[in-house]
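Severity: low
Component: inverse-folding endpoint
Summary: output formatting inconsistent between runs
Steps to reproduce: submit the following structure tokens with default settings.
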């Protein structure tokens, strides 16, 4: 573990932590990156040298205190180091989502007033060039990967490697200035600006200070005993606050190693090769991994399938208890050990989880069945609840108190309370400074005493002190009969099934709940292949009668489960349809972090929602879509609408 007794004044910025790490962990590996199939590494000493060279290069280009430096690209050591270099010169790094279209990037680049943009490759450079006609304050575009860049106009384009080389060559001119700027950094200096996902409107620039990031990194690392020997895989968007706190905040506090995969396509292979000890993934990643496992088991032979089912049933029975150190009989321990040899161990190895000591999921609520599946394998998966404005951590689950139905207790240093309207409020050292250029939103979100309104509805259990999140406060409502409507609760249960990629439930103010379903093309396509069912498109497969029957069975199973919850039993689904297209961020239906924009979906597909409630058996619809190259197109479809069996007892329970 790093020396936590160091004077806080000496470790008041990320560059100060970097200097400490270069001295203390010098020859230890700070970053690894897989390129062309080969892992390359940087020690802390090499990182410190490279960051300083980049910072000197930025000074050579005229970087001023308070400038905003946008970083666009995949997870690469050079991009993380560029963020720290920007901090060194007193500038503010602003990472952007690399899969954002030019129009989305234009808003952020314009809003933050970026003078410098560091791009990962030609694709990102092209997006910036596309918007430069309307954004005139971008002075320098810097690219990391030189491939494809030879014939561009380089009057305002620079290779990152050249910037570093020029920085090293000009160090005598700028060393004193750089040292002075590093010395000026303190706990209240801005560390990073991260933009919200924009679920309900335009993204907001969240200003986070060194105090926010370092205090949060310190307390969360101590909570889970993270140290210099840990390994993480950095594969989630750099623009997301979780990646920043794990790959820079905690990494620089503890000195652990950050590993960057070669590409999204090789991520699972790279995950297995690295075998991280500390792992984070949003629920959609765990859902996708579970879907792949289930598909493989459907294709397995009868003996393997029976063995898998037998030992997984035993794992669900005793696995979580063993993980929490609770008493388990000798026979059950032996059976679990045998299952580990035959099933759990090989499966964890395939998933890349053999060495995971601490795993987290957050961002969206995870289905209890999915959560319990991973814990039954002996993976110490826990939930945390957080947001960008909190520097991630609001609540966290201590070892031995991990449950699928809560998000844990307040993280170290966090105060928690529930407002009169049921909204969750918090206050902590990680609480953001402000929304950039948006004092009205800042004032409406954070009060004078520092309490932040999360926008989520929940309650704190009296006996355990654990927080339970019901749903987004704006999404929780009442049905026509007065029963509680919380769509996310039902949606998460549906997404446990490998065939269901996404679900959107409607019902606020209505006499019944209905749903849109997106099928998982990988899982359903595998089923079609096994059954010799030909299909030419997602739309054709989605409308197949057997697919509808399967989804109907899943929904009826969920209805039986929901009926057992007295508070939410009114949320059973009565009717559904399978959408003719996948919900897509490029079409504005989801955020870049794959959160459904519920209002947008309801408005865009208003004709389909209406058909769910007017008892139609089918409906013809036309929808505009965005293709990968940015072109717009129109797709048409006639969608079937199916009724689903519900349990009448649920209504009686709600009425009582």
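Observed output (run 2 of 3):
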């Amino acid at each position: 573990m790093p020396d936590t007794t160091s004077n806080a004044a000496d470790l008041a910025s990320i560059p100060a932590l970097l200097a400490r790490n270069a001295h203390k962990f010098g020859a230890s590996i700070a970053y690894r990156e897989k390129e062309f199939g080969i892992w390359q590494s940087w020690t802390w000493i090499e990182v410190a040298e490279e960051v300083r060279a980049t910072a000197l290069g930025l000074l050579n280009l005229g970087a001023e205190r308070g400038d905003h430096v946008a970083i666009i690209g995949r997870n690469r050591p050079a991009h993380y180091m560029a963020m720290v270099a920007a901090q060194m010169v007193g500038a503010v790094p602003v990472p952007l989502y690399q899969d954002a279209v030019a129009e989305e990037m234009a808003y952020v680049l314009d809003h933050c007033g970026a003078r410098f943009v560091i791009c990962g490759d030609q694709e990102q450079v092209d997006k910036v060039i596309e918007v430069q006609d309307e954004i005139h304050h971008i002075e320098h575009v810097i690219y990391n990967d030189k491939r494809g860049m030879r014939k561009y106009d380089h009057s305002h384009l620079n290779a990152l490697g050249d910037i570093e080389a020029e920085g090293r060559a000009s160090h005598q001119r700028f060393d004193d200035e750089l040292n002075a700027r590093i010395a000026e950094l303190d706990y209240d200096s801005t560390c990073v600006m991260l933009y919200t996902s924009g679920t309900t409107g335009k993204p907001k620039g969240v200003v986070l200070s060194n105090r926010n990031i370092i205090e949060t990194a310190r307390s969360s690392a101590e909570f889970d005993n993270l140290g210099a020997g840990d390994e993480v895989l950095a594969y989630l968007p750099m623009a997301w606050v979780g990646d920043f706190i794990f790959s820079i905040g905690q990494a620089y506090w503890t000195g652990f190693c950050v590993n960057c995969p070669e590409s999204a396509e090789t991520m699972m292979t790279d995950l297995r090769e690295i075998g991280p000890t500390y792992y984070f993934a949003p629920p959609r990643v765990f859902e996708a991994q579970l879907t792949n496992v289930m598909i493989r088991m459907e294709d397995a032979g009868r003996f393997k399938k029976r063995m898998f089912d037998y030992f997984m049933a035993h794992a669900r029975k005793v696995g979580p208890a063993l993980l929490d150190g609770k008493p388990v009989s000798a026979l059950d321990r032996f059976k679990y050990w045998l299952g580990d040899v035959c099933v759990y161990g090989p499966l964890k190895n395939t998933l890349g989880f053999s060495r995971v000591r601490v795993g987290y999921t957050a961002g969206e609520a995870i289905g209890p069945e999915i959560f319990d599946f991973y814990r039954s394998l002996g993976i110490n998966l826990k939930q945390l609840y957080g947001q960008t404005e909190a520097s991630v951590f609001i609540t966290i689950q201590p070892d031995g108190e991990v449950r699928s139905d809560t998000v844990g207790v307040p993280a170290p240093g966090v105060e928690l309370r529930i407002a009169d309207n049921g909204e969750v409020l918090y206050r902590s050292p990680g609480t953001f400074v402000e929304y950039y250029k948006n004092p009205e939103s800042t004032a409406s979100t954070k009060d004078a005493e520092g309490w932040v309104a999360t926008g989520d509805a929940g309650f704190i259990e009296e006996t355990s002190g654990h927080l339970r999140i019901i749903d987004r406060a704006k999404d929780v409502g009442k049905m026509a009969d007065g029963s509680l409507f919380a769509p996310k609760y039902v949606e998460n249960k549906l997404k446990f099934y490998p065939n269901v990629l996404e679900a959107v439930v409607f019902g606020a103010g209505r006499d019944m709940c209905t749903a849109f379903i997106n099928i998982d093309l990988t899982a359903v396509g595998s089923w079609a292949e096994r059954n010799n069912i030909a299909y030419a498109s997602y739309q054709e497969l989605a409308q197949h009668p057997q697919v509808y029957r399967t989804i109907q069975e899943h929904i009826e199973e969920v209805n039986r489960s929901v009926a057992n919850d007295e508070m939410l039993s009114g949320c059973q689904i009565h009717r559904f349809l399978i959408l003719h297209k996948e919900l897509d961020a490029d079409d504005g239906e989801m955020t870049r972090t794959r959160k459904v924009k519920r209002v947008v979906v309801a408005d865009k597909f208003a004709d389909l929602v209406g058909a769910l409630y007017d008892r139609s058996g089918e409906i013809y619809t036309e929808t505009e879509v965005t293709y990968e190259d940015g072109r717009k197109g129109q797709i048409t479809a006639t969608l079937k609408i199916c009724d689903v069996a519900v349990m009448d007892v649920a209504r009686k329970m709600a009425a009582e």
